[in-house]
Design brief:
The chain contains 11 helices and 10 strands. About 45% of the residues lie in helices and about 15% in strands. It folds into 2 domains: about 170 residues, 3-Layer(aba) Sandwich (Rossmann fold), CATH 3.40.50.1980; about 130 residues, Nitrogenase molybdenum iron protein domain (Rossmann fold, 3-Layer(aba) Sandwich), CATH 3.40.50.1980. It is an alpha/beta fold. Strand 3, helix 4 and strand 4 form a beta-alpha-beta unit. Helix 6 packs antiparallel against helix 7. The strands form 4 sheets. A 4-stranded parallel β-sheet has the order 2-1-3-4, with helices on both faces. It has a two-stranded parallel sheet with strand order 5-6.
Length: about 300
C-alpha cells in the first residue's frame, strides 16, 4: 500500500526546487536530524521534520503527507543503518526518482567508528548521535550535501558547520566533566532499549538495554528477569525510562528487582531516539544530551541504595 502511495503522490508532487524566497527545502526524518539541519542550514534552509517529540523512529511509518513532502524536497535527510526500518521502501523509491537523499549515519561515519549490532549480524548500531564528538562528523557531512545542491552558499554552510562543531566540542568537554560526579563502580546505565551504547563508549558507562537496538523487537519475560538479576546483583541504584518507549518494560524490571530483595529507583526519563518538546531543556540536540547526562549522573550519584521494603 505504501509504495503504491509513493507512486501516486510522486506523480502529483511539484518538482523539487528552492522555495519562492530562495531557501532550500529539506525534509528530515527525526527531530534530532531536523535540529542538525537547522544549525547547519540556518536561514538558507527551510527544514521540515517528520517525527516529533516522543516518536519512535524504529516503528514509524510514513504518512501520505510525509511522502508528498519528500517528493518535493531539495534534500531528504535520514539516519540510515535501519533506524527508520519501516521507511526503507520509501527512501529507495525517492532515490529511484532522482530525489537528493542522504543517509547521514550510514554515509558520514566509517565502519571503524561504528559499533556493531549485537542483535543483527553484519549491521551497525544506528544511534551515533549519542556521542557529541561523533556528531561533529554528521554536521560536516550535511554541510557538504547542502553545498552540492546550493553551490552559491557552499562556504556559508561549511562555516556554520564549523561553528556548530565548536559548540559540540565544548558540550563534549562538559559531559566528560559531569560524569566525574559518579563513582566509576556506579557507572552502569540501564535503559528501555539499547540506544545508549555510543554514549556509554564516549563517557565511560556500562550500558544495558531491556530491548535491543531496535524497539521492533519485543522484550520477553526472560529478558526482564535477566536484567533484574543483573541490577540486583550489582546493586545498581537507578534505572531509566525513555521518552519514546513505553515505560512498562522498565517498570516490570523494577518489580522483578524488588522481588529479588533489592529496591532500585526509576532515575528519570532519558531522550534516546527523539528530542524533547520545543522550548524545553531537551528540545535541542545539545540540550538533550546535557539533559540526559544530568538525569543519569543525578540518578546514579544521588539515588539511595537500599534493600526492598518487606
Amino acid at each position: 500500500m505504501l509504495i503504491a502511495c509513493v507512486f501516486v503522490l510522486a506523480g502529483c508532487a511539484s518538482e523539487a526546487g528552492t522555495d519562492s524566497d530562495g531557501r532550500v527545502r529539506l525534509v528530515a526524518t527525526t527531530s534530532i536530524l531536523a535540529d542538525l539541519a537547522e544549525n547547519v542550514g540556518g536561514d538558507a534552509v527551510r527544514v521540515e521534520g517528520l517525527m516529533g517529540p516522543g516518536v519512535d523512529p524504529h516503528l514509524y511509518k510514513a504518512s501520505e503527507g510525509d511522502v508528498t513532502a519528500m517528493a518535493s524536497a531539495d534534500l531528504i535527510v535520514y539516519n540510515g543503518l535501519d533506524l527508520e526500518g519501516k521507511m526503507t521502501s520509501v527512501f529507495a523509491e525517492m532515490k529511484r526518482r532522482g530525489q537528493p537523499t542522504t543517509a547521514l549515519a550510514a554515509e558520514a561515519f566509517p565502519d571503524s567508528v561504528l559499533l556493531s549490532s549485537p542483535d543483527y549480524a553484519g549491521n551497525f548500531d544506528p544511534h551515533v548521535w549519542m556521542d557529541a564528538e561523533l556528531w561533529i562528523r554528521a554536521a560536516g557531512h550535511l554541510a557538504d550535501q547542502l553545498a552540492q545542491i546550493d553551490t552559491a552558499r557552499a562556504a556559508a554552510y561549511r562555516e556554520r558547520a564549523a561553528t556548530y562543531a565548536d559548540s559540540l566540542r565544548h558540550l563534549d568537554e562538559d559531559l566528560h566533566a559531569m560524569v566525574q560526579r559518579v563513582p566509576e563502580n556506579k557507572r552502569v546505565l540501564i535503559t528501555s532499549h539499547d540506544a545508549f551504547r555510543y554514549f556509554g563508549r564516549a563517557y565511560g558507562f556500562d550500558v544495558r538495554g531491556l530491548q535491543g537496538i531496535s524497539t521492533a523487537t519485543e522484550a520477553g519475560t526472560a529478558d526482564v528477569q535477566n536484567l533484574a538479576s543483573f541490577v540486583a546483583e550489582r546493586r545498581i541504584p537507578a534505572i531509566f525510562v525513555e521518552s519514546s518507549v513505553p515505560r512498562r518494560g522498565i517498570e516490570a524490571v523494577r518489580e522483578a528487582v524488588r522481588a529479588k530483595g533489592f529496591d532500585v529507583a526509576i532515575g528519570g526519563t532519558l531522550y534516546g531516539d527523539a528530542l524533547g518538546s520545543p522550548g524545553t531543556p531537551a528540545g535541542t540536540y545539545t540540550g538533550m544530551l546535557r539533559s540526559n547526562m544530568t538525569t543519569v549522573t543525578t540518578g546514579l550519584a544521588d539515588a539511595p541504595v537500599a534493600n526492598a521494603r518487606p
